[in-house]
From TrEMBL:
UniProt entry keywords in alphabetical sequence: Signal
The protein's name in its UniProt record: C4-dicarboxylate ABC transporter substrate-binding protein
Organism for this UniProt entry: Deinococcus caeni
Origin superkingdom: Bacteria
Signal peptide: 1-28
């Protein structure tokens, strides 16, 4: 899957979720998101992220990002979150054998 396709899929997922939550929410709803970083050294978006502010203003959804390490470490982290019954609301799976 190309980077553009992944970005389009993520955007579609966010739009779908925001539609389900309602565009006119009185209070921002937190949505936890875990993604593998395209650049392993890139940090998660900060609280003042411009795109995050636009999403929050238009949809009432407050995105809380966790960046997963690449490779087996990311798979192990997702597996640990699943075992602890603490999976994020939206997450990326690169290893289909994980679940």
């Amino acid at each position: 899957m190309t980077h553009l396709t992944r970005t389009a899929a993520r955007t579609l997922a966010l739009v779908t979720i925001s539609a389900l939550l309602g565009a006119h929410a009185q209070k921002a709803t937190d949505l936890s998101v875990a993604l593998y970083a395209a650049n392993p050294e890139a940090p998660a978006p900060t609280a003042g992220w411009d795109t995050g502010e636009v999403i929050r203003a238009r949809t009432g959804v407050n995105l809380k990002f966790t960046m997963l390490p690449t490779g087996a470490d990311g798979d192990n982290k997702l597996g640990s979150l699943a075992a602890a019954n603490d999976l994020p609301d939206l997450f990326e799976i690169r290893n289909r054998n994980l679940f």
